[in-house]
């Protein structure tokens, strides 16, 4: 029940019709008795910069969820970025801290990493390959770096994108060995498809699966179907996998912690949410 | 249940803690199955002008409720004002019309007038006296003018305030006889206290009640108690009365109509609201 004491979390993007966050966060706030609400705000790109700063002057706002098309723009509008957001080159969450300054963070990759860790995979010191250096690939690479991998290979068909991402990783995590120029999965402990390959029938596989060793953990960002051809091929080789949708519910506890609402589990969220999944 | 299709009504003011509107409007939206929500937004005075226009660029906003300290400032921020808002010199509601332009209106007086009319009092052509030309007095005078009174007397201890109000009434309603300079209630059909007199013990009565004819309709804006000394004195003379709180629930249907959500009654609102009254 919204009242004059309710804390606001703005959910900014455009269009708003497919927004899922209000249907997950708000039932959870109710369930936990937390006086907060996620409010969808449809903002078109040209209107975003002028709205952004005044919004965070509201006395009852704590932060914002940021989605398309504003994730990259947000980088230049906040006061500070976490290393994850710096590496990703994008922010999908903003926290107004007690002193009024705005911190941008990026949780697209946190959902992936938390899912992997929940499946019992140790990441510290391990070797990971992320294929695709776009928004989601950069975010996953950033979160893998934050989780302490020892070697991180990033690959993109556009070499310049992978090279730029590699530079941002090295700047923030100088101790990590960063590799570019190959998508050969041989010798990696974790292999991630962060390209769109697998969305369309007939897409080629993102990497040569015959080069993935059995036991390598294989992750996927494509969500159009649960088991993509890539995941199916990996499973046939005896690899444990993570499906694309696991990222979604896994990232919400990270957001809730960021905003200071405590934490939860994907299972609790699924139990109370009004979204199927 | 808020979703990506929900229409927003911002409720702007500061502080927000005592806001009642979300507790009345939102249960009514639920009750009627209307996909809309009133969202409290705490805005301090210096931040208001910069926030105002960007807010109404949101793709899912329909309008705003405006309360202290922004009612007067809003007059200069909208594209157009209704005659009621022009006379009141203040706006407490903003509608974003289909063409994107912003219309300001003022419903503090509408609540008073609707309450009077609901009690069966005909206002067309009648003679009304409003004592007090501050915010609420100006709003009530504006709504009485809009309801078609024939003669409208306005009085304030600060004569300049009453004279300015009289000028705004005459400009918008040239056919109404506007009277200033006296608070003698003799000969009026409706007499309204729109001063704070009656809030404190020992306050003098706002007008000389011995000059009010039995049968004159007497209204009050003070809400600190149901029957103020003024209303009690009027009742003892045989006058029908309207208590201050009647304005509150009576004005909400006017707001809902303004925003295009259909209409309701104070009884239905009371039945579903989470506010006592």
Rg for CA atoms of chain A:
19 Å
Number of helices of chain A: 9
Output the CATH class name of the largest domain in chain A: Alpha Beta
Number of domains of chain A: 2
Find the biggest chain interface: A-B, 37 and 37 residues
Helix fraction bin of chain A: 25-40%
What would you say the CATH architecture of the largest domain in chain A is?
A: 3-Layer(aba) Sandwich
- Looking at CATH, the homologous superfamily of the largest domain in chain A is NAD(P)-binding Rossmann-like Domain
Structural class of chain A: alpha/beta
Note the gap between the termini of chain A. 25 Å
Model description:
2 copies of one chain form a homodimer. In chain A, the strands form 2 sheets. In chain A, strands 2-1-3-5-6-4 form a 6-stranded mixed beta sheet. In chain A, strands 9-8-7-10-11-12 form a 6-stranded parallel beta sheet, sandwiched between helices. With 277 residues, the first copy, chain A, is α/β, with parallel strands linked by helices. Helix content of chain A is 33%, strand content 19%. Chain A is globular and about 60 Å long. The longest helix of chain A is centred in the middle third of the chain and has 14 residues, at 159-172. In chain A, helix 4 packs across helix 5 (135-146) and helix 8 (246-259) crosses helix 9 (266-272). The mean pLDDT of chain A is 95. The first copy, chain A, has 9 helices and 12 strands. The first copy, chain A, has 2 domains: 7-106 and 247-272, Leucine Dehydrogenase, chain A, domain 1 (Rossmann fold, 3-Layer(aba) Sandwich); 109-244, NAD(P)-binding Rossmann-like Domain (Rossmann fold, 3-Layer(aba) Sandwich), CATH 3.40.50. In chain A, a hairpin with a 5-residue loop joins strand 5 and strand 6. The two termini of chain A are 25 Å apart. The interface between A and B is large, with 37 and 37 residues.
């Amino acid at each position: 029940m919204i009242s004059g004491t309710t804390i606001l979390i703005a959910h900014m993007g455009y269009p708003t019709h497919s927004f899922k966050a209000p249907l997950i966060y708000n039932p959870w706030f109710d369930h936990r008795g937390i006086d907060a609400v996620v409010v969808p705000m449809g903002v078109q790109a040209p209107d975003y910069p002028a709205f952004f700063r005044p919004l965070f002057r509201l006395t009852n706002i704590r932060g914002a969820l940021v989605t398309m098309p504003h994730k990259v723009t947000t980088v230049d509008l906040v006061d500070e970025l976490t290393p994850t957001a710096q590496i990703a080159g994008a922010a999908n969450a903003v926290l107004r801290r007690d002193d009024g300054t705005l911190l941008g963070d990026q949780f697209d990759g946190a959902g992936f990493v938390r899912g992997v860790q929940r499946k019992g995979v140790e990441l510290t010191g391990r070797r990971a390959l992320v294929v695709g250096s776009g928004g989601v690939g950069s975010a996953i690479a950033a979160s893998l770096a934050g989780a302490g991998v020892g070697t991180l290979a990033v690959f993109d068909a556009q070499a310049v994108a992978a090279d730029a991402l590699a530079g941002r990783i090295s700047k923030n995590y100088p101790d990590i060995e960063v590799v570019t120029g190959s998508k050969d999965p041989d010798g990696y402990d974790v292999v991630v498809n962060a390209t769109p390959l697998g969305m369309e029938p007939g897409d080629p596989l993102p990497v040569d699966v015959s080069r993935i060793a059995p036991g390598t953990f294989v992750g996927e960002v494509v969500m159009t179907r649960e088991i993509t051809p890539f995941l199916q091929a990996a499973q046939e080789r005896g690899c444990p996998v993570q499906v694309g949708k696991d990222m979604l519910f896994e990232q919400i506890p990270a957001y809730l912690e960021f905003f200071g609402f405590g934490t939860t589990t994907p299972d609790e969220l699924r139990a109370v949410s009004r979204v199927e999944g």
